[in-house]
Design goal:
213 residues, alpha/beta, Rossmann fold, binds adenosine-5'-diphosphate, binds adenosine monophosphate
């Protein structure tokens, strides 16, 4: 099964993608996580991506598409994957389509996690990410057992630089201008499914499972 998660930054794509990956035993592929791992390791790709990420802008398609196609060509993706944060532009979606078409394959579902902008701003301010394993929490909705510490690996939880309020506004307008048109793109292909992302995360997940089965 090949799934794309759509939705504004902070809509809960990553949270749901991890649950889908666990349930269906497929890899969770997040371009944001790949960039953050590269930044942490000080790679050239990481340094280049950081310039854009810090401003809430998209990393150019030339960089993003290659890392995604390399990732999904790996052995663990042969039975499917859940994409989180990719595609974010129409050209990215077209390249993915073409690459899949060349191997006689296609995306099964594009799931739009729908959350209005006003909820997004609150969510992003409360998101905390682990500096070690990248797990995400929310200080109100999904708190860690011990404040500031990751339940999974015990490392520190931080507010991502790009989750600061001034950057969140930029990311939202980038989303509306460049990413939201993908909703139409996948609707026309007949594979778009929409879930109400303002529900409790368990209810969002149940709605997704219903779609996938
Ligand atoms: P995205 O991957 O779309 O950017 P995340 O999955 O990281 O979003 O979620 C953004 C923030 O909102 C995180 O702090 C997460 O813990 C929290 N969150 C995710 N789903 C829900 C939900 N259904 N209700 C409340 N908070 C949520
Ligand atoms: P995310 O973790 O998905 O919220 O992504 C964090 C940041 O990484 C985004 O704001 C972009 O700067 C960059 N990024 C992640 N995925 C993509 C993509 N598909 N295209 C361009 N930039 C991306």
């Amino acid at each position: 099964m090949k799934i794309i998660m759509l939705g504004a930054p902070g809509a809960g794509k990553g949270t749901q993608a991890k649950m889908i990956a666990d349930q269906y035993k497929i890899p969770h592929v997040s371009t944001g996580d790949i960039f953050r791992a590269n930044i942490k390791n000080g790679t050239e790709l990481g340094m280049e991506a950081k310039k854009y990420m810090d401003q809430g802008l998209l990393v150019p398609d030339e960089l993003t598409v290659k890392i995604l196609l390399d990732r999904v060509a790996k052995e663990d993706c042969k039975n499917g994957y859940v994409l989180d944060g990719f595609p974010r532009t129409i050209p990215q979606a077209e390249v993915l389509d073409k690459a899949l078409c060349e191997i006689g394959d296609q995306i099964d579902y594009a799931i739009d996690v729908d959350v209005p902008d006003e909820n997004i701003v609150k969510r992003m301010g409360g998101r905390r990410a682990c500096v070690g394993c990248g797990a995400t929490y929310h200080i109100e909705h999904i708190p860690p057992k011990k404040e500031g510490i990751c339940d999974t690996c015990g490392m520190e939880l931080i507010l991502r630089d790009d989750d600061k309020p001034e950057t969140v506004q930029n990311r939202l307008s980038v989303y509306h201008n460049q990413t939201q048109p993908l909703i139409d793109f996948y609707e026309k292909k007949g594979i778009l499914r929409t879930v109400d992302g303002t529900q409790d995360m368990k209810d969002v997940f149940d709605a997704i499972v219903k779609i996938l089965s």
